[in-house]
Specification:
Elements (H helix, E strand, L loop, with lengths): L8 E7 L2 E10 L11 E5 L2 E2 L9 E2 L1 H11 L18 E10 L3 E8 L5 E2 L5 E7 L3 E6 L3 E3 L5
């Protein structure tokens, strides 16, 4: 029997001339127990169900994580936001190195609260000379002591 519910979006992944993944999303309002803003997912013509066998409804973040996982991407770790606050003195890797010294840093201050990027990593806004306000990966930021 053909599916009568309306597909909201679908993603098809092809490798050469062969379809390797068909990912369809349906608004959950089409089911009696569905919640607004969530979606039921069908992968390769099979419904994805919850661990208990019930219907599984995902939000946009859940759909993105599932799609990334199915495409072979890394699972995003649920790590806490870095402990960096606006005005805090930091040093930021600048991509250069010096012989015998190692990587070089720019001294600056944090210019905003940390944010999570679409890639799952944390970013921090800093002001860099000649570049202005820049969001850099929090992993490239090290705290420094206040000089006084």
């Amino acid at each position: 029997m053909a599916e009568r519910r309306k597909v909201w979006k679908s993603v098809c992944v092809w490798y050469g001339a062969k379809l390797t993944l068909k990912f369809e999303m349906f608004p959950s309002e089409q089911w009696p127990d569905g919640a607004r803003g969530r979606y039921r997912v069908r992968l390769d013509r099979r419904w994805l169900d919850a661990a208990d066998g019930g219907r599984l409804y995902l939000d946009a973040a859940g759909i993105g994580a599932l799609l990334a996982e199915r495409l072979g991407g890394p699972k995003l770790a649920e790590e806490a936001a870095p402990d960096l606050r606006p005005g805090q003195p930091v040093r930021v890797l600048n991509g250069r190195t010096a012989e015998g010294v190692g990587p070089l840093f720019d001294l600056t201050r944090v210019a905003g609260e940390p944010i999570r990027g679409f890639d799952g990593r944390w970013y921090v806004a800093v002001v860099l000379m000649g570049r202005g306000l820049v969001h850099v990966p929090a992993s490239d930021v090290q705290t420094t002591k206040e000089r006084g």
